[in-house]
Every structure is written in structure tokens, then in C-alpha cells.
Amino acid sequence: MEAEKEHIAVTEANKLGIRCSMNLISFTAYTDAELLGAVEKIVASCQVEMIYFADSRGSVCPESVYSLYSEVRKVWKAA
Questions:
Q1: pTM value?
Q2: Which of 3, 26, 16 is nearest to 43 (CA)?
Q3: What is the DSSP string of the chain?
Q4: Which residues pair with 21 in a beta bridge?
Q5: How far apart are CA 15 and CA 5, in angstroms?
Q6: Residue 51 Cα distances to 26, 39, 48, angstroms
Q7: What is the pLDDT of residue 16?
């Protein structure tokens, strides 16, 4: 999952006092491990108030959402 430029932009915005959110589109194209890795990277170095997982492909089921949400909450404590 490539998000280096976006990560830098969020970090710089944080330095300026700008409140940020992160939108991860087509999240079903990635494994849970890849998504959790991205979330861990985001929360380790910058502050986002919301992480939005967009089901752009229309292929996610409620059980998958709950499972991913549970894992994300272990590493990210929302602002």
C-alpha cells in the first residue's frame, strides 16, 4: 500500500494545526494485514481524527467490517 505522499501531507498539515482525516478507498483490494500496517504507520507519526474505509467495490460484508474495526481499534485510539 503506497501512501507516502499522503502521509507527508497529513504530517505537515498537523504541524500547521489542521485537523485531518484519512480515506482509504477500495479497501477490499488489500489484506487486513496491509490495512492494519497502513493504520499503524498513520497513527505512529501523525494525527488523524477519522479513518474512513470506503467499500468502493461493494464487496464487503458486515462480519468483515466488524473484524477490521476491532483490529483497527487495538492500534488506533481516535482523537
A1: 0.69
A2: 3
A3: ---HHHHHHHHHHHHTT---EEEETTGGGS-HHHHHHHHHHHHHH---SEEEE--TTS---HHHHHHHHHHHHHH----
A4: 50
A5: 16
A6: 13, 8, 7
A7: 92
What is the number of other CB atoms lying within 10 angstroms of the CB of residue 27?
22
Judge whether residue 61 has pLDDT over 70. yes
Reported as half-sphere exposure (CB side, CA atoms, 13 A), residue 12 has a value of: 6
Residues facing residue 24 across a β-bridge:
53
What residue has cell string 477490521? Answer: 68
What pLDDT, on the 0 to 100 scale, is given for residue 3?
58
Q: What is the pLDDT of residues 1-58, one digit of tens each?
A: 455 666 678 888 888 999 888 888 888 888 888 888 888 887 777 778 888 888 878 8
